[in-house]
Design goal:
11 helices; Quinone Oxidoreductase, Chain A, domain 1; six-stranded parallel sheet; seven-stranded mixed sheet; globular; 18 strands; alpha/beta; Rossmann fold; binds zinc ion; about 25% strand
């Protein structure tokens, strides 16, 4: 039986909402009925070609749902299990995996080249970032499925698969924010909001949200921001003004643009840490002069998927949800349908809203 999906027919082409046919799950595979799938900036980057996967593809990589069938050899979930999708399953055998840095697994996206489904007129489809979550149902490798612990509503749980793992991990694994430190977060989208909440959980004393849109102040403050700065050429100076002229201990950049990476860097105190989470294009050149690298003594680091191990961190995040420290519901700012995804992309480009989530 066909299910509905949002298909990217070619790079740069508009998404098509169409029926797709999924095979029964083979050995080591799981079929999942999606409850919800978040619209992440990476989906936009895949559709416009900033990031590339084989097409035509079913996009969507931040999802949660219920297992409907399992293939041979799958034992960690069974029909009826609530699950979170993990779009970057670690192979367990490459150099990064051997070092325990599973978020850098060299083989995590190998599945993107597979054919996981066909349109009803017979065109082969690839699964985008492995999990093809912009569909009522999907068939994925068992390693892409994490059991969802109790106490997390299924729709909210979708965000655990990308935005929250990324934002939480940026704070706790990459920047390693300690209690009492000051944090600035550049970009108040889905990841930025998760980063703000993570900074609050870490016990940051001052949490400064920075965004180009004045409309996001309320969202940012609800997520834990103590201060809100409207992005301008003056942002680093404003942030130094809020931190006894020092700059923040930690800046987290969630935009992926040269201008905001520079602003995050310049807002960081001498000896502080700047973490870049945003995924920018190759056209975004960021420059540093040799003297400032020496003088400021800052650490600049990239951060992939929050430097997270999803199988370890999803249960931890669920614990934060159950204890009321992490509020996923406030991250979901728009509940939409598959047909609304292009409008959600437009909002993202215009800098509006937090996370739009397709609810099936
Ligand atoms: Zn994502
Ligand atoms: Zn690996």
């Amino acid at each position: 039986m066909a299910v509905r999906a949002a298909v990217l027919p070619a790079i740069g082409a508009p998404l098509e909402i169409t029926g797709i046919e999924l095979p029964d799950p083979g050995p080591g595979q799981v079929r999942v009925r999606l409850a919800a799938a978040g619209v992440c900036h990476s989906d936009l980057s895949l559709s416009d070609g900033t990031m590339r996967v084989p097409v035509p593809a079913v996009l969507g990589h931040e999802g949660a749902g219920t297992v409907v069938a399992v293939g041979e050899g799958v034992t960690h979930v069974s029909p009826g299990s609530p699950v979170v999708l993990n779009w970057a399953p670690a192979c367990g055998s490459c150099h990064a995996c051997a070092l325990g840095e599973v978020w850098l697994c060299a083989n995590a996206l190998n599945g993107a080249a597979d054919v996981h489904a066909r349109t009803t007129d017979g065109t082969d489809l690839h699964p985008g970032l492995n999990v093809a979550a912009f569909a009522e149902e999907t068939v994925v490798a068992a390693s892409c499925v994490l059991p969802l612990p109790d106490g997390v509503p299924l729709v909210d749980a979708a965000l655990l698969g990308c935005a929250v793992l990324t934002g939480y991990g940026a704070v706790h694994h990459s920047a390693r924010v300690r209690s009492g430190e000051t944090v600035a977060v550049f970009g108040v989208g889905g990841v930025g909001l998760a980063t703000l909440q993570a900074a609050r959980i870490a016990g940051a004393s001052r949490i400064i949200a920075v965004d180009v849109s004045p409309e996001k102040e309320e969202l940012a403050r609800a997520a834990g921001a103590t201060d809100y700065v409207l992005a301008s050429g003056n942002t680093p100076r404003e942030i130094r003004g809020l931190t006894g002229r020092q700059g923040v201990d930690v800046s987290v950049e969630c935009v992926g643009r040269a201008v905001s990476i520079r602003a995050a860097w310049e807002s960081t105190r001498r000896g502080g840490r700047t973490t870049v989470v945003g995924i920018g294009g190759k056209d975004q050149q960021v420059t540093f002069n040799a003297l400032e690298l020496f003088h400021w003594g800052r650490t600049l680091s990239g951060c992939v998927y929050g430097n997270s191990d999803p199988s370890r961190d999803v249960p931890l995040l669920a614990e934060h949800v159950r204890e009321g420290r992490l509020d996923l519901s406030t991250l979901v700012t728009d509940r939409i349908t598959l047909e609304d995804i292009p409008a959600a992309f437009e909002n993202m480009l215009a800098g509006k809203g937090g996370r739009a989530v397709v609810v099936f």
